[in-house]
Amino acid sequence: MGDKVAIITAGGSGMGAAAARRLAADGFKVAVLSSSGKGEALAEELGGIGVTGSNQSAEDLERLVEQTLERWGRIDALVNSAGHGPRKPLLELTDEDWHKGIEVYFLNVVRAVRLVTPVMVRQKGGAIVNISTAWAFEPSPMFPTSAVARAGLASFTKLFADQYAADNVRMNNVLPGWIDSLPATEERRQGVPMARYGKSGEIAATVAFLVSEGAGYITGQNIRVDGGLSRSV
Predict the structure, then answer these.
(1) CA dihedral 27, 29, 30, 31 (to 10 degrees)
(2) In what order do the strands lie in the sheet with 29-34?
(3) Integer Cα distance of 151 and 106 in angstroms
(4) Which Gene3D superfamilies does the UniProt entry name for this protein (predicted)?
(5) Contact 145, 139 (CB under 8 A)
(6) Distances (CA, A) of 158 to 113, 125, 139, 162, 228
(7) Which of 9, 24, 25, 99 has the alpha carbon at shortest distance from 58?
(8) I want to staple 20 with a disulfide (CB 3.0 to 4.6 A). Which of 1, 8, 36, 68 is the partner?
(9) Cα(86)–Cα(42) distance, rounded to whole angstroms?
């Protein structure tokens, strides 16, 4: 087998870009999707493929997967990052807002996974990591559409893991707390037991572990990377 290949969606900045950099440093060939054009620039820097498009577009994702397979012939890892959905007081969210949240935080994963899973099944192996949120199970009124959609993503992940574990295709979620790609406030920092924001690189390192052979027996899980913020088991 030649080089391993990773696709990163919403990878132009923040945690997605950090994951792309880390996987490239670990020896992966990387293909990056980003709506801003930053993903193309990053991919060029890393010697990979960059596509400007949206993970809310099946056509853009198909283009990314096709270019990846044309160039390297395989896909070993898929990292699904996401943009930002609507944020309002709970009952001020319209039906349209909720639909948008599902698009941004849930269907972004489903679309990419539909395309990549058959490739991984044929290869008899692959790993998918979705960047979720620490508030998926302890919802915050600050992020209502994210919390609701990503609770659904946790269910989807377990269903996927149950179905594809025997094919050696794994899926896990990373649940970041307050990360330094967000504006910092002292109040939020003090609410974290570690009394600091996490680093994008720490999320990227968790992603890198979850797609590695060392994590080969981990699937269907939600891994909290939040400085001790979460209280639930």
Answers:
(1) -170
(2) 49-52, 29-34, 5-9, 77-80, 126-131, 169-176, 222-225
(3) 9
(4) NAD(P)-binding Rossmann-like Domain
(5) no
(6) 14, 17, 19, 6, 23
(7) 9
(8) 8
(9) 27
pLDDT at 231 over 60: yes
Tokens encoding 121 = 């099944």
Report the distance separating Cα 82 and Cα 10, nearest Å.
Answer: 5
DSSP annotation of 213: G
pTM, two decimals, is 0.96
Residue type, 24: A
% helix / strand / coil in the chain, to the nearest 5? 50, 15, 35
Dump pLDDT digits (tens) for 139-191.
Answer: 999 999 999 999 999 999 999 999 999 999 999 999 999 999 777 889 889 88
